[in-house]
Amino acid sequence: MGHSDLPGATRRKGTVARGLALGAAGLLAAGVATQAANAETRGYAVSWFYMAAESQNDDCPQGTNPLSEEMATNYMKAAGKSDQEIQALKKDYPANMYGPMYMRGRINGKPANVYINPTSEPDPKIKTAQGHVAYGFNLDGKDGPNDFVDPQTKQTGVDDMLYRAVGCFITQRASGGQRPTYPAIQWDTTRDQMPAWIIEVSGIERDAVGKVKDGDVKVNIFRATGPVTRNAAGDPQADMSYTADTSPRSQNTVHATMHNGTLTTDPFEFHMIQDPFAITEYHFKNTQVRLTLNDDGTAKGVLGGYQPWLPIYEGFALGGAVNELNLSIDSPGIYYALKRLADAYPDASGQNQFISSSYIIEAVPAFITHPNADKTSMAVGPVKLAAAH
Question: Are 112 and 103 in contact (CB under 8 A)?
Answer without folding.
Answer: yes
